[in-house]
């Protein structure tokens, strides 16, 4: 009988402790649910301060040395032209020469492709410029037909625009987005008759850089527009607060 009394007592104690643990669990669960999650936005408009531009030129000849000599003459004309437009020599970069063999090709009577006899060499070289004088390089890229008018087979690419102080812009946007998110959280808490507690979690999104007023899509890994001189960057910050 004594053993039965002890067993009942132990069981009762266990039941009481179980209720206590259950109560704490419910309390903690409710406490963890009593949070506010908000997302803030930070944006910044800026003008690119670095530009890159490139073009290519080529020569065809059945003799490799002759083709290379002709290409070298064109390279000098291009280099002198760029210097005459105020481009610094250390900003002008010529790539290595790409050499491709050319063949006369045709389709036979059965419609099969046939690579015919060797017809010569095609030599191509690229020239590129990187400069902080954005306006000057823009004008150069628009008026590159002056090189073509000198008898050079030249193909110009569109300029690409960059910004060298992007790290500073990103810090400013993070601060703005964080402030925006906190103000939203405070407003929500105020409207619900509560007060904002401790910050539990902060998550930063990726930076998105697009042309202003464009319909460019945001990317999961971040968008970086290089075709527009004027740019608009944005970033989001998600904050999770406890609510008292």
From TrEMBL:
Pfam families: SIMPL (PF04402). Coiled coil: none annotated. InterPro entries: 26kDa_periplasmic_antigen, SIMPL/DUF541, UCP029033. Gene3D superfamilies: Protein of unknown function (DUF541), domain 1, Protein of unknown function (DUF541), domain 2. GO terms for biological process: DNA damage response. It comes from the Bacteria. This is SIMPL domain-containing protein. It comes from Chryseobacterium contaminans. The lineage of its organism: Bacteria, Pseudomonadati, Bacteroidota, Flavobacteriia, Flavobacteriales.
């Amino acid at each position: 009988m004594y053993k039965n009394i002890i067993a009942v007592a132990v069981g009762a104690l266990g039941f009481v402790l179980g209720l206590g643990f259950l109560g704490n669990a419910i309390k903690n669960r409710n406490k963890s649910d009593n949070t506010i999650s908000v997302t803030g936005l930070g944006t910044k408009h800026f003008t690119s301060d670095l530009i890159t531009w490139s073009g290519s030129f080529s020569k065809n000849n059945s003799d490799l040395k002759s083709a290379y000599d002709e290409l070298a003459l064109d390279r000098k004309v291009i280099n002198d032209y760029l210097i005459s437009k105020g481009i610094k020599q250390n900003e002008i970069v010529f790539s290595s020469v790409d050499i491709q063999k050319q063949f006369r090709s045709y389709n036979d009577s059965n419609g099969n492709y046939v690579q015919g006899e060797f017809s010569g060499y095609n030599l191509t070289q690229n020239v590129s410029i990187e400069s902080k004088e954005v306006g000057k390089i823009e004008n150069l890229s628009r008026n590159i037909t002056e090189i073509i008018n000198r008898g050079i087979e030249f193909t110009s690419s569109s300029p690409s625009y960059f910004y060298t102080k992007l790290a500073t812009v990103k810090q400013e946007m993070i601060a703005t987005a964080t402030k925006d998110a906190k103000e939203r959280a405070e407003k929500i808490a105020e409207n619900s008759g509560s007060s904002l507690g401790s910050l539990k979690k902060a998550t930063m999104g990726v930076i998105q850089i697009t042309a202003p007023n464009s319909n460019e899509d945001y990317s999961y890994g971040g968008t970086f527009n290089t075709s527009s001189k004027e740019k608009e960057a944005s970033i989001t910050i998600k904050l999770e607060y406890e609510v008292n």
